Every structure is written in structure tokens, then in C-alpha cells.
């Protein structure tokens, strides 16, 4: 149950908080030894496999249409789900089939190998509209919660932990009632913003230059790893964000548009000062000592073509936007965003779009509003914090 993809990570820094002493994760997770049976609806249940990609795509898009969700998925997106080596569909997924073998329900529990501050398990799933109101959704969600608790316990990471679900705010009320009845509470709120690009005479694009000799350059494979390091630094103080491993960073790119993506580099960084800065992480320090390029801000964009008909317009989507903490206040992230917006215009996209965490105190909403972005849809993350 929840939105197709988690909201993009656009720049909105918040201060980290001190974590109190915690009991072991195995104790806090309270994982059941066995998973609850799903008997409602008379479906046959088994784990999902890569052979299910076409059926899973059809089911997920049917659910999205019935729930009036503002997106659709592609075959490539679903195929890529099964390509990530850390996903364990044999134990972390389940699909329900009728007597004719039609897939009518599914559930997945998603965890990430890079979690180092909060161990998270996100729950995704849904039921075909033709078999709703039979109790399937309630039992399926109970399975997800139980499996999510097992995943957290099995991680062995004695960190703060979270079971999370994302829902569209205008989605089915019954779905949200099931989630809240299981003990989940609203924790974070997100909005999707769009900016009209069709009349630049009336609303010109911002002309932004980063300060201090920084350069905006097109994204390239050669700068990919440096961009990952910049992202991990930029979002280290962002609520709910975790560092990405190289394999995580390179996964989920079926819609990625490198020609719409830009990074800001410092050609002459003060290596001595950065190495002396306690906020410089070990991976960045190693890259600086090796003389690798230093990416200080970035804008990573995607093209979700399947969404165009649903939304009624074409758009470029800024999926990731951030600035290294040592370089904030130099308009680097804004310069990267402006370059991305120009790339959208050059490819005749009608709008620029992005998601933002509404709870951030950084003034991000005000910045986006000043650039002409307006709210279109909203979503909520509900969670159980352990």
C-alpha cells in the first residue's frame, strides 16, 4: 500500500537529533516467528518472481488508475525492481492469484543496505479493485507489517528503526484506515510542485551563477561517483534520508535523463580545510586525497513518460537536488536546478516538476515558490517508530 516511488530528495536540510539509548533491534522489532496467513478472497499466495513483471505492471497500473494516483509505471521500471541484488523477493514479497492465475493482489517489503542512522522497512502493496471489500487488504497489510518487523530484526542493526508507508492524500480512505488501525501515524508530509515553462516571456527562467569560482557542468559518467558522495553529504542532516551505497545509487535509473542533469564542481577546492573539517566524511576525504573531482551540488532529472497522459501535460522531473553542507549559501544547488529547467525547455517539456518535504525549516518552499513552482498533489508517510 502506498505510492509508486518515494518522493524525490530535494534540498531541505534539518538538524539531526540525539538518539536516546535503545534496546536491541531484535527486541524492539517484536518480530513474529511466523507470518499470518491470508485467507480472505480465496486467492493462492506465493512470492513474486521476475516472470511476474508483466502481470505485476498491469496490476499496479490498474490499482493506480482506480485510486486516481497521479502516475503510471513502465515495464522497464518493474523489471528493474528485480535487478537490484539486495532485494529478496523470495521472502519479502507475496502475490495473490485467482483460480485462473490472474494476479489480483501483491505486497512487498523494501529495505536498503545503506541504512546507517535509521533502519527502515517500507511497505508497498495493493488489491485489484474487482476484489476489494473482501478483507484481502487488511490481511495483506498484516502480512506486510509482520514481515517488515522480521526484516528489521534480521538486519542486526541496533539503530532507531522505522516501518513506513507512503499514501497519496486524496487516495482511498479505506486504505488509510487499514494503515492507521495497524498503529501507523502520520510522520512526514510531501508535496509535488510544478512550474509552467510554456510562457518564458511572462515568467523567465532564473539566471543563476554559483559564487566563488564554482562551475555548472553537464552530468557525466565520470562524475557519477563524485555526485553520489555529494548526495550523501548533502542529505546527511535530512530527516529520513540514508546514505546510498554505489549499487543503490546506480539502481532505479530507467527514467533517468543525463542530458537533463547537471552538477556543480569546485576545480580548486581547499583540500586542507576540507580534510580538517570534522563534517567531511571518510569517502569524500579519500576522494580528495586521491585528487578526484569534487562535486558540490547536483540536479538529477528523470522523464516519466507514462505519467504524461495522466497529468495532462509533459514535464521534466527533478528527482534529486542537493548541495554539500560546506558549500551552502553559494547558490550552487539553485544554479544546477536552473540548468535543469533550461534543459526541460530545450526538449519542449511544458512543466518542471519536483517533490519536497513540507516539514523542512530551510525555506525550500519559499525558494521554489519564488521560481514559479506551485503545489499539485500531496502525500504522507505514515510510520511506526521503533
Put the structure in a nutshell:
The chain is an alpha+beta fold and 386 residues long. 30% of the residues lie in helices and 24% in strands. It contains 13 helices and 13 strands.
Helical fraction equals 25-40%
Radius of gyration: 21 Å
CATH topology title of the largest domain: Aminopeptidase
Beta strand %: 15-25%
- CATH homologous superfamily annotation of the largest domain: Gcn5-related N-acetyltransferase (GNAT)
The number of E-state strands comes to: 13
Q: Please trace the helix and strand order, writing H or E for each element.
A: EHEHHHEEEHEHEEHHEHHEHEHEHE
Estimate the mean pLDDT confidence.
91
Please give the alpha-carbon distance between the first and last residues.
20 Å
The structural class is alpha+beta
User: How is the biggest beta sheet arranged?
Assistant: 13 strands, mixed
Number of domains: 2
Low-confidence stretches: 11-19
Domain N-acetyltransferase: 43-206
Protein name: GNAT family N-acetyltransferase
InterPro entries: Acyl_CoA_acyltransferase, GNAT_dom
Description:
Mean pLDDT is 91; it is low at 11-19. With 386 residues, the protein is of the alpha+beta class. It has helices at residues 25-29, 53-66, 75-81, 89-92, 136-155, 173-181, 224-234, 246-249, 271-276, 282-289, 307-311, 332-346, 364-370; strands spanning 9-10, 44-46, 93-97, 103-110, 119-127, 161-168, 185-196, 215-218, 262-265, 295-302, 315-323, 351-357, 373-385. It starts with 8 loop residues before the first strand and ends with a strand. Strands 1, 2, 3, 4, 5, 6, 7, 8, 9, 10, 11, 12 and 13 form a 13-stranded mixed β-sheet that branches. The chain is 30% helix and 24% strand. The protein has two domains: 9-190, 3-Layer(aba) Sandwich (Aminopeptidase); 192-378, Aminopeptidase (3-Layer(aba) Sandwich), CATH 3.40.630. The chain is built from 13 helices and 13 strands.
Amino acid at each position: 500500500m502506498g505510492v509508486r516511488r518515494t518522493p524525490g530528495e530535494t534540498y531541505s536540510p534539518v538538524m539531526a537529533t540525539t538518539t536516546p539509548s535503545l534496546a536491541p533491534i531484535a527486541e524492539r522489532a517484536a518480530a513474529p516467528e511466523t507470518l499470518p496467513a491470508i485467507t480472505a478472497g480465496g486467492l493462492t499466495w506465493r512470492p513474486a518472481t521476475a516472470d511476474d513483471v508483466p502481470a505485476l505492471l498491469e496490476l499496479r497500473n490498474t490499482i493506480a488508475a482506480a485510486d486516481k494516483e497521479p502516475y503510471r509505471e513502465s515495464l522497464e521500471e518493474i523489471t528493474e525492481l528485480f535487478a537490484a541484488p539486495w532485494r529478496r523477493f523470495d521472502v519479502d514479497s507475496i502475490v495473490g492469484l485467482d483460480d485462473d492465475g490472474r494476479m489480483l493482489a501483491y505486497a512487498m517489503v523494501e529495505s536498503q543496505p545503506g541504512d546507517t542512522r535509521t533502519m527502515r522497512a517500507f511497505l508497498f502493496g495493493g488489491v485489484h479493485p474487482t476484489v476489494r471489500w473482501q478483507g484481502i487488504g487488511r490481511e495483506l497489510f498484516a502480512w506486510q507489517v509482520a514481515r517488515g518487523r522480521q526484516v528489521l530484526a534480521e538486519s542486526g542493526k541496533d539503530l532507531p528503526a522505522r516501518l513506513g508507508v507512503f499514501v497519496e492524500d486524496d487516495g482511498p480512505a479505506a486504505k488509510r484506515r487499514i494503515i492507521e488501525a495497524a498503529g501507523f501515524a502520520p510522520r512526514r508530509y510531501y508535496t509535488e510542485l510544478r512550474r509552467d515553462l510554456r510562457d518564458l516571456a511572462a515568467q523567465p527562467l532564473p539566471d543563476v551563477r554559483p559564487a566563488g569560482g564554482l562551475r555548472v557542468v553537464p552530468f557525466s559518467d565520470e562524475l557519477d561517483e563524485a555526485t553520489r558522495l555529494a548526495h550523501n553529504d548533502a542529505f546527511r542532516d535530512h530527516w529520513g534520508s540514508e546514505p546510498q551505497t554505489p549499487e543503490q545509487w546506480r539502481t532505479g535509473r530507467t527514467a533517468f535523463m543525463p542530458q537533463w542533469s547537471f552538477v556543480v564542481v569546485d576545480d580548486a577546492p581547499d583540500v586542507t580545510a576540507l580534510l580538517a573539517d570534522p563534517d567531511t566524511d571518510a569517502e569524500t576525504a579519500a576522494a580528495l586525497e586521491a585528487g578526484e573531482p569534487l562535486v558540490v551540488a547536483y540536479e538529477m532529472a528523470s522523464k516519466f513518460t507514462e505519467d504524461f497522459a495522466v497529468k495532462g501535460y509533459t514535464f521534466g522531473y527533478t528527482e534529486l537536488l542537493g548541495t554539500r553542507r560546506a558549500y551552502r549559501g553559494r547558490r550552487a544547488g539553485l544554479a544546477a536546478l536552473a540548468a535543469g529547467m533550461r534543459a526541460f525547455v530545450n526538449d519542449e517539456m511544458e512543466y518542471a516538476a519536483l517533490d519536497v518535504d513540507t516539514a523542512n525549516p530551510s525555506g525550500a518552499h519559499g525558494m521554489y515558490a519564488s521560481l514559479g513552482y506551485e503545489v499539485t498533489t500531496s502525500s504522507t508517510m505514515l510510520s511506526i517508530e521503533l
